[in-house]
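Example record for the data management plan.
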Amino acid sequence: MFARFILLLSALLLGGCSGNPQQLYLEKVVASQTPLAETPADALRTTTAIPMPVNPGWRPPQWQITAAEPRIKLDGKIANYRVFSVDLKKTEPYTIDVNSWCVNSCLGFSKYALNPRLLLLDAKGNVVAEKLSQASGYVGSISQTIRGTVVEDGRYYLLVAADNRAPGATIVMDRLLMVGGASPATPMDIGMGSYPFGHIGPYLSRPED
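Corresponding structural encoding:
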C-alpha cells in the first residue's frame, strides 16, 4: 500500500499540472474561431473593457484568460487577451501591476503561468506604454509592472495578453519547499514556464487621500 502511494505521489510530482503549452497554443489559440485583432486599436473595438480595480488590497480580483477570449496578433504571435479601463491624470505618475497565478494550483514540478504582456492604450487605441520583459516571481505566481506618466487626462485602456513568443519556456524560477530532507523544509528552485492561459489580477496603485 505504501509503495503504491509513493508511485502515485511520484507521478503527480513528475507529471506536472497542465497540458503541453506548445500543443495548447497551436490547438486552442491559433486554431480558435474567436475574433482576431490585427492591431491594438482593433482589439479595443472587439471587446468591452473591464473597470480596473484601484488599491484593491492584498488580493486583487481575478479574471481568466482562456481560449474563449478574443485574440490579437503581436509580433507575429497570436494571443488571447482582456482589456481593462482606467482613468489617469497627467499630473500623477501611474503604477499598474498585473499578477498571474500558477495554473491548476501549481502542483508538481512542471509549473506554468501566463506571462502577461501589457499594452497601455489611449482612447484611439494608440500604444502609449508597453511592458514585455522578464517578469518577477514569488511563490506560486508572477508579476509584471508598468509605470509612467500620460500626456493628458483621460480614460486609458490596459490590454493584457498572454506572451506567446515561446510557450513552455521558463519565465522565472519559483521556490518550492521540499519536506523531509536534511532540514524540515529544503528549498528547491523550480522553473515556471510560459502558458497561453491563466488567471490575472490587474490593478492601479494610487496614493491614498
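Summary line stored alongside the record: The first helix runs from residue 2 to 15.
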